[in-house]
Structure formats: C-alpha cells, structure tokens
Amino acid sequence: MSGLTTTTLQLAPEKLAALHQGLVIPAHPLALDENRKLDERRQRALSRYYAASGAGGIAVGVHSTQFEIREPGIDLYEPVLRLAAEEIGKAKLERPFILVAGVCGPTPQAFEETEIAGRLGYDAVLLSMGGLDGWSEEDILKRTEAIAAKMPVIGFYLQPSVGGKIFSFDFWRAFAEIPNVVAIKMAPFNRYQTIDVVRAVCYSSRRDEIALYTGNDDNIVNDLLTTYRFQVDGVAVEKEIVGGLLGHWAVWTQKAVELLEEIKEARKAGSLSKEWLTRNVEITDCNAAFFDPAHGFAGCIPGIHEVLRRQGLLKGTWCLNPHETLSPGQAEEIDRVYRDYPHLNDDDFIREHLEEWLSD
Predict the structure, then answer these.
(1) In 3D, which of 265, 256, 230, 277 has the Cα closest to residue 344?
(2) Nearest CA to 93 among 15, 186, 33?
(3) What does the alpha-carbon distance between residue 207 and residue 195 come to, in Å, rounded to a whole number?
(4) First to last CA, the chain
C-alpha cells in the first residue's frame, strides 16, 4: 500500500479544536434509485444539505451508508466517499468541517479503506469493531494501533443488536492510550457501557486529547448535558460528551445544529431546567419512529430514508438489501412524531434550498 505507509496523518489544529468544542456529525445515508443503483444527484444533494445545515462534519461509509457498499459487484465504498469529499470541497465552508470515513473489517481490509480515505482527503476514520468474531480484545487493540499509525482514529462502541460486541473497562483504558486516537463515539445504547468508556478515558493519561461523542441515538440530550466525574488516584476528574456522530442526525440536521448550540449555552450557564429531560424524551420518541426498536432496529436505515423522502431529498427508501424495508406500522409512527413534535423538523429549511441542492 502506497500513500499512507510512511506518514502518519494528523488532524489539523483548527479541526481538532472544533472536534473538542463539539460538533454535529451526521452519518451520511446512501441515495439509491428504483433499480438500487447509486443516485449520484441525490447523493450529492445530501452532502450539500449537511454542509448548509451547519453540521461540523459528516461520516461516510458507516452503518447508515450501508455496509453492503463494500461487497464485490456493488463496489460503492470509494465512489460515495469521493462524492462527499467533492461536495464539501465545492461548498468552500469557512468553518472547520471534518470528513470521517467509516472503516471496518480485518486489518488488511481496514488498511485498504484507510488508504482510500486518506487519498480522498478525509480527516479521520471511524473504526468499527463489529464483525470481528473470535478476535480478542488484544487483537482489536493491535488493529487499532496499526490504523492509528496511518490516520486519526475515532473509536466506535457499537450496540450488540446491530453487530457490535461488549468490551471491558480495561480495553477502553488501553484504547484511550493509543496515540492518534482523537475521539470515541459511544453507541452501546446502554448506560453502564457508556459510563465504562467515559471512566476509562478519565483514567487515561490521554484524557485531555480524546473528545467524547454520543452515538446513543436513544439518549442524545442527556448524554450531551451530563458532566461525568470520577475519582482518579484521589483526584476528581471530569469529562463531558461534547457532540454527536449520529444516524439520527442524518435527518432534521439543521434543528440538531440549533439543539447542540443551545446545549452548549446551557452548559456555560451552569443551571439546567427540568425541561431538558422532557426534550430528551421528545427526541428519543422521534428516534424510536426512525430507528424501529419495536422490531429490533430492522427498519432503522429505511426509517431515515423515509424522512428524507418526505422532505424531497431522496426519491425512495430503497436499500442495497431488498429485504431491508420499513417495518409494519413504522410509517405511521413517523406520521405521529411529525404531528406531535413539529418544532423538531427542518422541513421549511429544506424546502427553501431543495431545488438548489438538486441542481447539477
């Protein structure tokens, strides 16, 4: 492998600072036509939407982009990464914007995907640890070290119900010590496991070098408002989850940006209203409609697509896997959350710009 074998890429200082201040990073969906082929026009429109919404980055090639993009005969991993990078380049944004590439698989595959990401100008990789059945924690740490020697790594704690596995506190403490790990996305959808990661980072000598991001789409607001405090060698150490890298934020993104800014202001004020607990429930209720926990998350990707279809960004809800469709009653649940929480959608914002985003 050429290109990344001799030089370790680092995150630019202004992007690293932005990452630690907290960003909205949507997980980028895949736009397909009725023949389940890449709809390049709408794929570009999605990237334009995220750039215009005020997001601080996008994650491409992740679960929401569909892991099947890597399969022989589909071969969409590099094309979708390239399209997103091109559109962000064209946008000429004046704020820091972080391009994150999803990387998965055994070490040779992860190396190859990391090389593609680096060649296309991506800033960091979101390193999935799912699907590595039979690998020990030590094996996975060695794989992480190898990838971090090439590019900045965002760790990823994925919930077991969609292919993740449970890791120990000691694993996360060792993970946090790996140079060039710049952040960790926590998405176990589990309070105990989320606390394990935060506590492990607090025990690490690199705790100030690692930004924590929520991937817990079922608890977004609470994660972002909580100050975690642990006693480390008799000293109180505090850490916050500063932003989100979320499939949920692939929709209603402009409102998510407003939400995060409001949360940052609330943190500064140091006094939180009980109303935040209610808002957390509102957003989690919407996520239940989008992500379909009622059917074991079977409709989570089509649910995201359905919202984007209603807004005009996607033409349909098609996935590469023809069996991946909306679950029974899911469309009605999306109807309900649209009706119950009109203040959470960004339909007006999209309506104002849609024609421009869909233009050539």
Answers:
(1) 256
(2) 15
(3) 14
(4) 35
pLDDT digits (tens, 9 = 90+) for 164-176: 778 999 999 999 9
* Cross-strand pairs, 246: 26
Q: Tell me, rounded to whole angstroms, the distance of Cα 201 from its chain centroid.
A: 19
Q: Read out DSSP for 92-124?
A: T-SS--EEEEEE-SSHHHHHHHHHHHHHTT--E
Identify whether the C-beta of residue 217 lies closer than 8 Å to the C-beta of residue 252: no
Report the largest interatomic distance among the alpha carbons of the chain, rounded to a whole angstrom: 61
pLDDT tens sequence across 126-159: 999 888 888 999 999 999 999 999 999 999 987 7
- Cα(118)–Cα(74) distance, integer angstroms: 22
Given a contact cutoff of 8 angstroms between Cβ atoms, the answer to whether 246 and 27 are in contact is yes
Q: Which H/E stretch holds residue 77? A: helix 77-91
What are the residues facing 59 on neighbouring strands? 27, 100
> How far is it, in rounded angstroms, from Cα 157 to Cα 171?
11
**In the beta sheet, which residues pair with residue 92?**
none
Q: What angle do the packed helices 77-91 and 107-119 form, to 10 degrees?
A: 30
- Cβ atoms 80, 74 nearer than 8 A: no
Helix axes 300-311, 275-291, angle to 10 degrees: 100
Per-residue pLDDT reduced to its tens digit, 56-102:
999 999 999 999 999 999 999 999 999 999 999 999 999 999 999 99
Task: Report CA-CA distances (Å) from 39 to 44, 221, 318, 332, 354.
Answer: 9, 33, 11, 27, 16
